[in-house]
Amino acid sequence: MAEMRPEEILSVVEEWTRQYIELSGIDYINYVQIFENKGAAMGCSNPHPHGQIWATEDVPSEPYKELQSLKKYHTAHSSCLLCDYTTLERTQWSRIVCENASFLCVVPYWAVWPFETLVVAKDHVASLPALNDAQKRDLAEMLGRVTCRYDNLFETSFPYSMGVHGAPVVGKGDGEGESHLHIHFYPPLLRSATVKKFLVGYEMLGQPQRDLTPEQAAERLRNLPEVHYKKRR
Fold it and tell me: Is 50 one of the catalytic residues?
């Protein structure tokens, strides 16, 4: 996506949406997980850009935990956790990488990976099908801007795992009202194109440790150009 035009990425977003709707029509499907593994460092065996979609009968562990937190917060505060979090980040600004009319990209304060980011919808939308045309265009633009910054950081094709999290299949599960569309980027690189972070030892057996603060990571990404390094040579 880092080298694609916004209109090309928009075609991907629209296909994600079509697949979500189509798979939702299967009786036993209750969750649609859209994701991309990029680069050998993330175990990607096919070098060409591609993504995957897994449709499952149960809500997988990670989105399930997020959904429970969203529901618990909504019960306690009568508001959306990610709506309130977006407001907080826009007030503090220090962890923001970039934004447009519909989406915000931040290095979340709980990030584990050095340059982990979260792309979150500014409005309360539950899933891809809930986006209007303008929001889809903004999402495509945002994905291009974020991935271009990643490539520019170490001037390499930046590896990551990316996944879309939103509501369980519409009309089939609880939590649709509390769900809030967001996208995770989990990139492993730490200091260069060849040095990555390893979650081993204490970080595996105890708890993860930050190699740089979320604010430092956000500043480095924020200060990068949005013209791909290959086009600047």
Answer: yes
